[in-house]
Amino acid sequence: MNRPTTSGRFITFEGIDGAGKSTQIAALVEALRGRGLNVLCTREPGGTEPGEKLREVLLGMEMHVDTEAMLMFAARREHLAAVIEPALAAGNWVVCDRFTDATYAYQVGGRGLDAARCDALEAWVHPHIRPDLTLLFDLPPALAAARIEANGTNPDRFEQERRGFFERVRAAYLERARREPGRFHVIDAAREPHEITREIASVLSKRSWL
Ligand code: TYD
After folding, report:
1. Which of 46, 64, 136, 144 is the most exposed, fewest CB within 10 Å of its CB?
2. Nearest to 101 by CA among 170, 26, 199
3. Taking CB atoms and a 6 Å cutoff, what residues make up the pocket around ligand 1?
């Protein structure tokens, strides 16, 4: 994909459920907008009308893992075509709550989907696009589960998974981060929110983005 020279960046947030991404996404978007940048804030699965319908199905209904992976990528295809690619092409910044790393972590790592199937879907849906930066919120699943419970909201079917599932998801995320240290920044998400906000600002300023 051709990006204009005054290019925005594609930043994704990842981590197990309950890692505290939402607060930090809001803080980063506010900081970037405060610098006068055009920022699109979006999420997966979702971000488009058909994508949000697919999200309802994905979060609400039991299904075969192949179906789950294909629907994640179907929503992603629409999201890229209708939202992400046009924004990046216009030089805007895109901050996205989860992207393809989540499919590798949850469907491949968590559910045991063959990684080759995920590779094939990725090669079909976005052979040329990768996030410029992925912030991985890492914390022990027990702590994440306690946070979800404290939130008091009804857990979706992913949040209802057992501890072992999230151990596998976490391990898969960390393995991807180990393989692509230039793209990933791993955040110790057990710390206080204000410390994490400061760390994210420093990651961006080290790259001369802020
Ligand atoms: P998220 O938006 O983080 O959930 P919430 O709004 O409840 O905090 O993500 C929705 C769920 O979808 C989350 O449990 C992870 C899962 N997911 C996958 O399993 N695979 C994927 O490719 C994506 C994008 C999400």
Report:
1. 64
2. 170
3. 17, 43-45, 72, 97-98, 102-103, 106-107, 156, 158
Reported as a single tens digit per residue, the pLDDT across 96-142 is 999 999 999 999 999 999 999 999 999 999 999 999 999 999 999 99
- Which residue has the CA at smallest separation from atom 11 of ligand 1? 158
Distance 156 CA to ligand 1 centre (A): 9
Whether the model clears a pTM of 0.85, i.e. scores above it, the answer is: yes
Helix (H, G, I), strand (E, B) or coil at 176: helix
Nearest CA to ligand 1 atom 20: 103
**Contact 56/119 with Cβ under 8 angstroms?**
no
Please state the atom number of ligand 1 nearest to the C-alpha of residue 72: 22
